[in-house]
Amino acid sequence: QVQFVHSGGGLVQPGGSLRLSCAASGSIVFSNYMMGWYRQAPGKQRELVARTYSGAGTYYADSVKGRFTISRDNAKKTLNLQMNSLKPEDTAVYYCNVPIGSGFLGSWGQGTQVTVSS
User: How many CA atoms lie within 13 A of 87 on its CB side?
Assistant: First the structure.
């Protein structure tokens, strides 16, 4: 099974920036898969933040478009999320995973906490 190690979260003031990373372990040919960042705020369902297709194409949720940038390093099996102009409503636990059909390839793990507060 694929597992991910998340890093880069923390406490930041509104308008600030953070860069999240996740590293994949296990027998996955990273470059073969679409990868996504997801987040779950307290009391809310997990939601898609951004996706990247290997080689071309990205998707962003409307709520983060223009502020977040997703990128990947296939050789290092890492996925990144640059988050700028952060807002309090971005506060959540952030996870990366591999969407496969109606499910996900990897385990969710603990994610990384992002808290935007003054």
Answer: 9
pLDDT, one tens digit per residue, over 28-75 is: 888 888 999 999 999 999 999 999 987 778 999 999 999 999 999 988
Summarised one tens digit per residue, pLDDT across range 87-108 is 999 999 999 999 988 899 888 9
Tokens representing 74 are 């296939």
Contacts of 97 (CB under 8 A, 6+ apart): 4, 35, 36, 38, 104, 105, 106, 108
Q: Each residue of 28-64: b (16+ CB within 10 Å) or e?
A: bebeebebbbbbeeeeeeeeebbbbeeeeeeebeeeb
